[in-house]
Amino acid sequence: MGIAIESVSKYFGNFAAVDQVSLDIKTGSLVALLGPSGSGKSTLLRIIAGLELPDHGKIYLTGRDATYASVQERQIGFVFQHYALFKHLTVRQNIAFGLEIAKWPPDRIKHRVEELLKLIQLRELGERYPSQLSGGQRQRVALARALATEPNVLLLDEPFGALDAKVRKELRNWLRHLHDEVRVTTVFVTHDQEEAMEVADELVVMNRGRVEQVGSPAEIYDRPATPFVMSFIGPVNVLFNHTGLLQNAGLPTDQPHVFLRPHDVVVDTAPRDRTLPARVERIIHLGWEVQAELLLEDGQALMVHLEREHFDRLNLEFRQQVYIKAKEERVFAFDVADSWLNEGKQLSHDRR
């Protein structure tokens, strides 16, 4: 067992930042704590690290109770969003810092530092200072420093949040390859769904201090357990089912709301069996994909994603009449309060 979290809660005043969270993280896995700001993911990470103490519950690391163990006793490597490198030390000296504090023999320190410089592909930059490195290079040095003392667990708090999109993409690939090589149990916090799904073996989706769902990226995306997970992981349309309009398309009618991914809508220019009429309101070209905003007869907006080749065949135009049908196996129905819908992201809205 890598990390076991048992009924952990953390309060700040009357606010439950983490609320009765239980979670098992396997040895050698790479797990993402994913959720919006204020969901409790960073607080949970800090509790695992020993930077915060839980008000209730237990933390077990590699099978032993570490709830009240010191940061040093936990043998954890921690990487912050803003690198936290020592500006007056070179790359080599930054990586060696923790080893010197731990009183490793000089020869062993030198060997370990060179080993890590090779691992992070910065051997030729060992004598540079942090100010002489790019943001991506500095984050790699921060990761090497965290790995230097051979920790049992590596924790990353929004490790790529301060970097631009291109560098983030490159570092995500690099982190995945690094983990496959070193196999340290790794937990990283992010609010970026694409980042989490690209890097992690398993996602822990959090909301309001609680765990909504745990699973592989494919399980989370294809079989969402709650409306929050459905809306947070990828774009989604929420259609209000109160008019019965959706019955013609074979969609569920026993729930007031139907959740539908934009790429799970079939669009045609002629009516077919069990299709619904709609009007093209907007077309957005995104390179290999085209995004079309449609308006149903009852005033509900529907966002659709079409592959470029399919869009070209349809030859869609503004204000054109089209006919839509959902891929029935990709439709989810939830009974959702209107107050929750108002908090959702990337949802369609009634435009009557």
Give the structure's gist in a few sentences.
α3 packs across α4.
Summarize the structure in words:
This protein is of the alpha+beta class and 352 residues long. The protein is 27% helix and 31% strand. It contains 10 helices and 18 strands. It has helices at residues 41-49, 91-101, 106-119, 135-148, 165-182, 193-199, 217-222, 227-232, 308-314, 338-341; strands spanning 3-12, 15-25, 30-34, 56-61, 64-65, 76-79, 153-157, 185-190, 202-207, 210-215, 237-240, 257-260, 265-268, 276-286, 289-296, 301-307, 321-326, 331-334. The strands form 4 sheets. A 6-stranded mixed β-sheet has the order 6-7-8-3-9-10, sandwiched between helices. A 5-stranded antiparallel β-sheet has the order 13-17-14-15-16. A hairpin with a 2-residue loop joins strand 9 and strand 10 (210-215). Helix 2 crosses helix 3 (106-119), helix 2 (91-101) packs parallel to helix 4 (135-148) and helix 3 (106-119) crosses helix 4 (135-148). It is elongated, with a radius of gyration of 24 Å. Mean pLDDT is 87; it is low at 344-352.
